Amino acid sequence: MPAQPLQPLLIVVSGPSGSGKGTLCKMLREAVPDLVYSVSLTTRTPRHGESNGVEYYFVSREEFLKLIDAGDFLEWAEVYGHYYGTQCSAVEASLNAGKDVLLELDVQGGQMVKEIFPQAVTVFIRPPSLEELSERITRRGTDDAVAINMRLSCAPEELRAAKIYDYVINNDLKEQAFAELLNIYEREKSIRNQSKGE
Ligand code: 5GP
User: Fold this and answer.
1) 15 CB less than 6 Å from ligand 1?
2) 197 alpha carbon to ligand 1 midpoint, in Å?
3) Residue whose CA lies nearest to ligand 1 atom number 22
4) Domains of the chain by residue range
5) pLDDT tier at 9, thresholds 50, 70, 90
6) Is the minimum distance from the CB of 105 to ligand 1 under 6 angstroms?
7) Fewer CB within 10 Å of terminal CB in the chain, N or C?
8) What is the pTM of this model?
């Protein structure tokens, strides 16, 4: 009998700005090179060191609004004063090809994807405290004071959304948080592969 194709996994990681979700996602991508990372579109301006097509596709508000009208987005949201969105095409093509996909989304996007793909696995990254979050955002030095305040003011509301996620990881110690994320990925893969074999 031919081998059954493995069930692809759609994994969504969310958390407040400064929670460390970007670092944890990067570590997961390095550990699982076959995992497809969906590069989002955004209307925010690139930070120092960011390149178009790597961290994001940087587009104008006009372009973004046109893509919304064209129905190009699987999900999109206005976050911290800018638009961010995931295009359907790349995600669907990867899942149809049996590849696992990683999405790093804000909590609105996370909720939307879970509604569209109830089988998606959602993971929320929680910082140890709001004080620590504030220190981390300030320390990383990627945002100006206005952007930092906007991000911090959204954090309490974002933290309340943790309850709708399948998993919550406390990102106190990076290595430990990463081990948990990898464990979730591997466990969810094995659950899917077992059910496929039944
Ligand atoms: P940043 O500006 O720090 O790169 O991202 C701001 C927020 O937007 C983060 O919470 C990030 O996860 C989220 N984000 C990035 N891409 C997308 C996307 O395609 N859709 C949604 N809903 N949020 C996104």
Assistant:
1) no
2) 36
3) 109
4) 10-197
5) very high
6) yes
7) N
8) 0.95
pLDDT digits (tens, 9 = 90+) for 167-176: 999 999 999 9
Ligand 1 binding pocket includes 86 (Cβ within 6 Å): yes
Domain 10-197 sits in CATH at: 3.40.50.300
Taking the centre of ligand 1 as the mean of its atom positions, its distance from the CA of residue 31, in whole angstroms, is 22
Q: Is 122 in the pocket of ligand 1 (CB under 6 A)?
A: no
User: Which amino acid type is present at position 93?
Assistant: A
